[in-house]
Each structure stands twice: as C-alpha cells, then as structure tokens.
Design goal:
Blueprint lengths: L9 H23 L5 E10 L11 E2 L1 E14 L4 E6 L6 E5 L13 H12 L10 E7 L9 H16 L6 H16 L6 H8 L4 E6 L5 E5 L7 E7 L10 H16 L12 H6 L7 H22 L7 H13 L6 H12 L4 E5 L6 E7 L3 H15 L5 E4 L7 E2 L3
Parallel strand pairs: 4-6
Antiparallel strand pairs: 1-3, 1-13, 2-7, 3-6, 4-5, 7-8, 9-11, 9-12, 10-11
Helix pairs in contact: 2-3, 2-4, 3-4, 3-5, 4-5, 8-9, 10-11
The structure holds alpha-D-galactopyranose (GLA).
Alpha-D-galactopyranose binds next to helix 5.
Length: about 400
C-alpha cells in the first residue's frame, strides 16, 4: 500500500493543516495578490453502505476521508468571481457573479461558480455580492467515486458563508451545493456526498435519512477494533453525467409512481415480494429489489455497529455489492475483481462505493491482514492486465471546516 494516511492522529494532523494552510495562502498571494481572508477545507468521502438510495429518500452511511479540497478566499466588491485551480494547467477563470446562469461556466469552474449561482438564486446574495477571489487546491482523487465534486462545492460554500456572513447551517449548505450540481453543472446526484462533506465528524460514520436529513454520528473506531477499511481506486474513471446514473434514477422514480408511493423508501422490506409482483414492467423489479434491500442493509449495519460488533458488518457489505452488481447493474469487472479477490484473500467484506461504473471499492480487513489483502488485489489487477489500483486507508475524518483561525 502506498502510505495509509492518518492525519487525524494528533501532531501529524496539525502539521498537515499548517502545511496546507501555508500552501493555500501562498498560492492565493501568487495568483490574486493580497492576503486571503481565510482558508477553508472540505473532504471527499467513501460510503460504507446505502448506495443509490439517496435519490429514493432512503438511508446512507458515508464517512469523510482525510483527503480535502482547500479554498483560500477573499471577498471582492466589484462582483467579479476570480477562480483559480492549482490542479489544472491554465486554471484561472473570471466571471461576473451577477451574470451567472447554467451554461456560463464549464469544467472544474462550473462547481464553484454553480455554488455562487445557487446562493444568489436562494436570495442569499444580490447585486454585486458573490464576488470573491478563490485559490483552489485538492488532493481528493477525481473520477474515483470519492466525491471530489462535492468537496469542491462544499469548500466553496463554507468559504462564501463566512466571507459574506451568511450563517448557513451545514444541512443548508449541502442542499445549496446539491442544487448547484443538479442545475448548474447538470448532474442529477442525490444529497449524500454534499451532506458527507459538510457534516461528517472524525471517528464516525454519518447515518443519514436523506428524506428529512435527520442524521446521527455513529462511532466507527476501526483501529480500536483491530480493523481497517481500505479504499481501492480501480482507476476506471467513472462519469456520473454519462447517462447511466440518470437512467437508474428515472427507473426508480417510474417504479415508485407505478407502486403509488412517493419514493421507493416507502416500500417496506416486509412487502417487497408483493411490490415486485405488482410491477408490470419486469425491468423495474431489480431496481426496486436493490433499493429496498439496501435500505435494510443500512439499518443492519447501524445495528451491528451500535452493538459494538464491527466485524460482522463484512458480509452485509459484500451482499450490498452483489445487489449493486446483479440487480442495480452499476458495477464493472474491475470493481468485481476487487471484491472477489479481497474476500478470497481473507477480507471480512467488500463492496463498490459511490455511483459505480468504475471508481472505488471499500474493503473491511483485519488490521494484521491488510497488507496481504492489498497485495493480492494488486496482483490480481496485474494478472488481469489492468493498470495498478491505488490503495489507501479510509480513516473517518472531519467534515468541512475553516483551517486557519
Ligand atoms: C453518487 C451521487 C450520490 C449517490 C451515489 C450512489 O455519488 O453523487 O448522490 O447517489 O452516487 O449512492
């Protein structure tokens, strides 16, 4: 494995914060001139269980990664939004905040511009407000199903929230960021990623009801239990905008309408067979089966963690993968290979995480066997002729925050 990250560990975390704060401030000065007012950070995430349930008003359980997007920012009073990404070449874009509308920005700039647009649409900023200089730097892998988009949106939103003294609660920030992604960027995502980035806390997974955003921080101290959660980025680039995600979402909505419920979350597990039998279109049945059983799996995992039995969530994770692969059809050969190889090598359980069609898997392992499981997965990729996967440890980390002061 290439160096599991553990920036939550005391001094190491402080040193990392200090280094990232200094880098962002220096980058800001070099690009925009002057001093940034502050430096904000928002993390990527992995989802432990509860996949493709969020746009069905269901349950999810993400945790924040140590990897973050940082935004160094200062207000501008001339209404210009000056965006610079240190992660792309030629990454400077200047836009008039007042004229922002879907289609006026693309690529990476659409995410922060979309957030300013969403704040303005909500009436939180008007006239020339929303002008700001932003310097953006991220170490959340992109296209890996780890929510680099949400990290960028939420980091931008918490920066503007402070710069303009908006006083927005994290849930409101998450909703505004989701709107930016849905309507400005044009990706029909649910609310999980933005809520994870805005609300997660170190050492916990976030048990979230996506219908009303009721949330509970569930202690998830794997190290104390002698366990580790590995992330395997298959390096197969996923793109949620490519139509498959939207098709699954539309299928779920069609099924809910056919069943006469507001959302598939309203189909009780105990009535699944009756619901399936009542669906005239057989193509909708596996979608419904996945969502209903996945919501049930979230509750199972929460129950096991509350009972202090983290080892036993492994088979539930693997069952979730089978459901995503066979019923929801959002896996891919590389993700399946991670899950099969890891489980054969002694992992407690494994599953794809995020939207699928590529991206990453999570693997629950005994700490003592982590290196071996990782090596077996890497060997299997090599033998299959796939590029080497990227492996690291998911240490449940802090959600969005101001880094300086
Ligand atoms: C992506 C979306 C989320 C969620 C997951 C699947 O990450 O952004 O809203 O739908 O896929 O669980």
């Amino acid at each position: 494995m290439n160096g599991p990250l553990d920036p939550e560990a005391g001094a190491e975390a402080e040193a990392l914060n200090a280094a990232q704060t200094a880098e962002a401030a220096e980058g800001f000065r070099a690009v925009h001139g002057g001093e940034p007012t502050g430096i904000w950070a928002a993390p990527g995430r992995v989802n432990l269980i509860g996949e493709h349930t969020d746009y069905n008003d269901g349950f999810v359980m993400p945790l924040a990664l140590p990897h973050t997007t940082r935004v160094a920012a200062a207000r501008r009073d001339d209404g210009v939004l000056g965006l610079h990404s240190a992660d792309v070449s030629g990454g400077t874009v200047r836009l008039p905040a007042e004229k922002l509308a879907p289609g006026t920005a693309d690529g990476w700039a659409a995410y922060p511009a979309g957030v300013v647009w969403a704040l303005r649409e909500a009436g939180l900023l008007s006239g020339r407000e929303g002008g700001a200089d932003l310097y953006i730097r991220s170490d959340v892998p992109t296209g890996a199903g780890l929510s680099s988009s949400a990290a960028l949106e939420v980091a931008t939103a918490v920066a503007l929230n402070d710069l303009y003294g908006l006083g927005l609660a994290p849930e409101r920030i998450a909703r505004l960021c989701q709107r930016a992604e849905n309507e400005f960027v044009g990706v029909p995502c649910g609310i999980m990623d933005q809520m994870a980035s805005a609300c997660c806390t170190a050492g916990h997974a976030l048990h979230l009801d996506t219908r009303d955003l009721a949330a509970r921080q569930v202690p998830f101290d794997l190290a104390a239990a002698g366990l580790r959660l590995l992330v395997v980025d298959t390096r197969v680039k996923h793109a949620l905008g490519d139509g498959e995600y939207a098709r699954r979402r539309a299928g779920c909505e069609e099924a809910a309408a056919a069943l006469g419920v507001a959302a598939l979350r309203d189909v009780p597990y105990g009535e699944l067979d009756t619901a399936l039998a009542g669906l005239a279109d057989p193509a909708l049945r596996p979608l419904v089966r996945h969502v209903v059983t996945e919501n049930r799996r979230v509750e199972e995992v929460v129950g096991l963690l509350d009972a202090g039995d983290p080892r036993s969530i492994g088979p539930v994770l693997t069952a979730g993968h089978a459901s995503l692969r066979d019923d929801f059809a959002v896996s891919c050969p590389e993700l399946d290979l991670v899950v099969e190889t890891a489980n054969a090598a002694g992992a407690l359980g494994a599953r794809m995480t995020g939207g699928g069609f590529g991206g990453s898997a999570v693997v629950l392992v005994e700490a003592a066997g982590a290196e071996e499981v990782g090596a077996e997965v890497a060997d299997a990729f090599d033998a299959a002729g796939h590029p080497a996967p990227r492996l690291f440890e998911a240490v449940p980390s802090t959600g969005a925050r101001r880094l300086d002061g």
